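User: Hello, can you help with two protein structures?

Assistant: Certainly.
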Amino acid sequence: MTTTFWNKRRINIIDTPGHVDFTLEVERALRVLDGAICLFDSVAGVEPQSETVWRQADKYGVPRICFVNKIDCLGANFFRIKDMIVTNLDAKPPVIQLSIGSKDNFQGVVDLVKMKAVIWSGEELGVKFVYQDISVDLQELAQDYHSQMIEAIVKLDDKAMENYLEGYKLDEKTTRKLIRKGTIFGSFVPVLCGSTFKNKWIQPLLNTVVDYLPSPLDLPVMKGNNLENLELIIEKTTSDEPFAGLAFKIMIDPFVGSFAFVRIYARKLLAGSYLLNANKGKKERIGKLLEMHANSREDIKVALIGDIIAFAGLKDNITDGSYHDVDSCVLAFQLVARRAFKEGIKKASARILEPIMKVEVITVEEHLGDVIGDLNSRRGQINSFGDKPRGLKYVSTLRGMTKGRASYTMQLAKFDVVPQHIQNQLASKEEKVAA
C-alpha cells in the first residue's frame, strides 16, 4: 500500500497478491476500493485466479480498467488476451489503445482517443516519449478499433448517439467523458497495454486512472448495518456528513503495536479525535494517523475522504473472549487439562462431533461431474444448483481437479454427530497410537 500524486490528483494504491492462498486478502481490499487496475500477462493471459478475482470485483461493483503487461516479452499477443477477457470473464472491453510492435520490437502504443502514436525512447526507460502521427501500416487497424470504441461509448448518451448517426465526429473531451461514464457505471472495461519493466505506457496509464476511474465523490452512497437492530444505514460520501470509516484490516507492528487500516467515507479526520468504535460501542481517541508506504509509514495530522490510512492506539480491537494474567506454568496447564478431560469423558456419554460446513462451489460446466463426485466422496449433501451463483483442505483438491478454474466459499453451519462406523475407526486408530 502506498500513495502517489499525478496531475494534481492523489492516488491511494493497494497492491493485492494474485496467488490463490491470498484470496481473502484480495476480497478484503476490494471492499474498500473505488477502482481497480486488472493486470494481465501478455503471454499467460486470463489465468484461473484472474477469474476468481474478477468475480470478487463484480461482487463489490468495483469499476476497473485492464492493463495487458509485458508486451515486450517473447510470445506476447495483445489481441489474444483481449479475446480471453471477453470469453473467460464475460466482459465488454473496448480497446482504447494498440501496441506498436511487440517483443523486442515494442516501441510504443497508439492512443485511440487522441488517434496519435506514442513513441518512447529506447534508452530512457520510459522517461521521455513523444506523440506523432500513426504510421501508414497501422492506420487501418487503428481506425477500425477507434470506430469500435466510439460505437461502444455513444450508447451511453442520446445526444452523442444522435450526432454519431448523423455523421458528426466526437471530440476528444466528449470521448473521455463517455469512457469515464461507462467505466464508473460498469458498462464496459477499457483495455490498455504496455510494459512496466521498461516503464512504457506508465505515464498514460496514470492519466487513464485519473481520467476514467472514479473519485470518492463519484461513487454511490456507502451502505452498512446497525449492529443493534441490523437496520440498513446509508452514508453519503460528502464532507458535510458525520465521520464514517471502515476498519478493514488489523496488523501488529513490533514498534508501533497494533494498528488498523481504515478507509474514510465521510468527513475529514484529525489526529487526536475521538471516534465511536461501532463493534464495542465505546469512544476511542485516535492517537496517530499513519500514511503507509509499503513497509514504511509517515505521521500525518489530517486524513480526507477517500484516504486509506492506519490508526495507531486503538484499544478495543480484539475479538470476543476474555483473558487473565498467567499464574502458572505451561506444563501444569497441560497436566490439569488432560486429567480433567479424562474425568469428563468417564462421566459423560461422549460422542464425537464433526463440523458441518456450508460450501458453495463455483466451477465451469465441463468439470461439474468431477466436482459432484468428489463432494459425494466427502459425504457432502448437495442442496441446490445455480446457473450463476454469487460467489477440509479443499482448495488444492478442487483447483487440481478443475485445472484451477473453480473456487469455493465455506462457512460453519453446525456441529453434528460423526457416524458410528467412523467413530469406531477413529477410536481404533487412537488405540494403536497409544499402544
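That covers the first. Now for the second protein you mentioned:
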Amino acid sequence: MAVEKPMDFPYVNLPQFINDLNLMCAMIADGPLKSFCYRRLSYLTSKFQLHVLLNELRELAAQKAVPHRDFYNIRKVDTHVHAASCMNQKHLLRFIKKMMKMHSEDHVFKQGDKLMTLEEVWRMEWVYAKQYGCFSRGFDQEFDGKVFSAMNITAYDLSVDMLDVHADRNTFHRFDKFNTKYNPVGESRLREIFLKTDNYIGGQYFAEILKEVMSDLEESKYQN
C-alpha cells in the first residue's frame, strides 16, 4: 500500500445513501412491521426451545465424541472486536491484581500537578466507596497517599463481581449501560490506566495485557 495514497474502494453516492437510510428508519418505525418481527422472533425462540428439548442430550454426546474441539477452540468469526474488550473478565482481574502486587508504587496517573501511584489511585476509590457507598466516577479532590495505606486494602479484595465488566441482559438496547462496562468497578480512571493508550504511562499496561491475550491465542489454535 502506497503511503498517503487513497484506496479506490467502491461506495454509493450520497443521494443513494440518504434514500437507503430513510428506508431503514421508516422500517424501524413501522408499527405493523414491529408486530410481525416480534411474533416471528417469538416463534423462532419457541422452535429453538423445542429443538433443545428434543436433541440436547444427543448433541452433547456427539460433541464429546469429537477430540480437541470445544466451545473455546473452534473457529469463530467476529467482525467487531474492541481491543479493550478482547480479554475476558477473569483475565483482566488477574492482570490488575498482578499489577497491584508488582507495580503498586509506579506513577500511573496525573491529577492536576500531583502524580499518583497505582496503589494511591485504587485506595482513593475505596476511601470514597466506603464513605459514600459508591465509587467516585471522576472524584477530583486531593488525597494523601498515607491515608490510603492505612485502609489496609489489597489486591485480595478484588473479585470478578466487583470488577463488573461483563455485559449482561441489562445492557440490551442500553448503550449507556454497555459503555460503563468498559470501566473496571465503574471507574473511568481505572479504564484510563489499564485499557487506554493515551494516558500518563503511554498505554504500557494496555500493551502488556494485549500481549498476554495474543500469547494465549497463539498457544491454542482457533481459540477466540
